[in-house]
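Input (structure):
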């Protein structure tokens, strides 16, 4: 299983980075404004490349030479460090500015493959001044207009050409378990406790661990490959900032995993960052074991409050297994692998075709299907096409929208009847 490559769009403020980000994604996701510094938080999207799968695209705030009172430069540089390719954007209409040279000097130290994008190709100034940007020393330089989609095809080709070869994980015939979670929730401490040795550096300073760590663990005669998502770091304290980088790094490790070990800090409760990482695992079809770390530090009232606030996570992950642990003392850690093994077994569920159709017929009989465009939706038959996660093709007289409540009803009915708690279910509805 390969790791999805990451591409960061960087440059000084107000050169068109967010407009280019939206253009490459073919959707309006980043805020576009002519006021410098609007994009303060990294925004993550997934871009499809012809014949090369997808890449993670990161829109960053503008790098500002000199004082950085809000810590924004640090956030950009973290994104740079985590990326496989940089797109450095300059304003062709304004020409080569001293700030461009200063910012590029800071980025060159990271020795990342880079493409120079001279934006605003629709202006005469950009067309006539294009060659002055060769002073920056890029091997690949492209003239584009992010606003008018000029040169975007050439940029797509350049990205595909300059991305480093996909990093393939060594083929190890053992279930892959990714230890994921927000920074400083105890992931490395858990890894060390599970291994019984100090395999990963542990420190109370968020972001101490740097590179992902893969370790083969044997327990009760069974082998597991533990993937420690050590690259997940804490963002600086920018007001209202989502933990986009944590989600990006979790996604890259979950791409390689069969099951997620989602570590939650009990003392902080369920946060938006926890929910974002859980949602990423679910979206990728990876079930999660929820590990509530530092449980022993809570009093009875705090434990009750945590249980009450866990409902959204329970709903998001379809009642996943939960283990209350202390990575520091080892309490409950012996239950982690059995919980993961149970999910691995459920992932391989394959009911017979007759049983599957009986269950779905019972679902339709219990709750009448909706009318679409004035006609009732009718189930014909269903079959399972794959497992991990269980994927079913349902043939009907018409499709159901992806977000249709009835589609979710059918998924939940199947989950309940087959006992697939905590398991993502895929329904593919085809007409016949």
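Output (sequence):
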């Amino acid at each position: 299983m390969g790791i999805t490559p990451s591409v960061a769009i960087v440059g000084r403020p107000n050169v068109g980075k967010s407009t280019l980000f939206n253009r490459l994604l073919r959707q309006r996701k980043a805020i576009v404004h002519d006021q410098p510094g609007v994009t303060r938080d990294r925004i993550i999207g997934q871009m499809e490349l012809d014949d090369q799968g997808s890449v993670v695209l990161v829109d960053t705030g503008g790098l500002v030479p000199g004082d950085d009172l809000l810590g924004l430069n640090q956030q950009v540089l973290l994104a740079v460090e985590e990326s496989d390719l940089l797109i450095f954007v300059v304003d062709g209409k304004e020409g080569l500015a001293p700030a461009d040279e200063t910012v590029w000097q800071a980025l060159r130290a990271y020795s990342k493959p880079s493409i120079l994008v001279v934006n605003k190709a629709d202006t005469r100034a950009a067309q006539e001044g294009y060659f002055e940007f060769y002073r920056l020393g890029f091997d690949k330089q492209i003239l584009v207009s992010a606003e008018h989609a000029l040169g975007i095809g050439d940029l797509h080709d350049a990205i595909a050409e300059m991305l480093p070869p996909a990093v393939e994980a060594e083929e190890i015939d053992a279930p892959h378990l990714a230890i994921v979670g927000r920074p400083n929730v105890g992931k490395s401490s858990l890894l060390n406790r599970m291994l019984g040795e100090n395999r990963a550096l542990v420190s109370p300073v968020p972001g101490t661990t740097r590179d992902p760590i893969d370790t083969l663990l044997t327990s009760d005669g069974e082998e597991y490959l533990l993937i420690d998502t050590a690259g997940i770091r804490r963002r600086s304290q920018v007001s209202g900032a989502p933990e986009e980088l944590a989600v990006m790094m979790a996604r890259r490790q979950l791409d390689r995993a069969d099951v997620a070990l989602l570590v939650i800090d009990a003392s902080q409760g369920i946060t938006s960052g926890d929910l974002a990482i859980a949602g990423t695992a679910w979206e990728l079809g990876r079930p999660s074991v929820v590990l509530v770390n530092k449980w022993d530090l809570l009093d009875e009232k705090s434990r009750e409050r945590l249980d009450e606030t866990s409902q959204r996570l329970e709903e998001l992950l379809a009642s996943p297994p939960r283990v209350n642990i202390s990575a520091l003392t080892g309490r409950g850690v012996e239950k982690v692998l059995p919980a993961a093994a149970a999910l691995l077994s459920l992932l391989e569920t394959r009911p017979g075709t007759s049983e599957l159709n009986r269950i779905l017929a019972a679902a339709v009989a219990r709750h009448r299907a909706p009318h679409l465009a004035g006609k009732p939706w009718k189930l014909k038959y269903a079959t399972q096409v794959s497992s991990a996660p269980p994927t079913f093709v349902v043939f009907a007289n018409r499709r159901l929208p992806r977000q249709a409540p009835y589609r979710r009803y059918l998924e939940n009915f199947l989950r309940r009847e087959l006992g697939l708690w905590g398991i993502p279910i895929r329904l593919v509805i085809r007409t016949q």
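Notes: The chain has three domains: 6-162, 176-346, 353-431. DSSP finds 13 helices and 17 strands in the chain.
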